[in-house]
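Message: I would love a firmer grasp of how sequence relates to backbone shape in proteins. Thank you; the sequence and its tokens follow:
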Amino acid sequence: MTKLKFSPLFSKKLAKLKRRNPKLANLVKAKLKLYQAYPTHSSLRLHKLSGNLQNAWSLSVTKDFRLLFTFRPEPYFFDLSTHAEIYK
């Protein structure tokens, strides 16, 4: 099983999400567990990014909500937000 690490920003945003939208926060946790067990599962829509985020990867929680991470060497999740907020 893949070990995951989280930035302070990621943890802070996830805690805020738990208060504002517990259902979405639970879905984030479920997707993280799925990624841990099956990192290439098709429902994660995992893909490498380009441009300013060229060293990062994106994992889809919903059609509009994303988790961003890099490898250090284990997956290091550093941001979560909507598609529009992350890619602005």
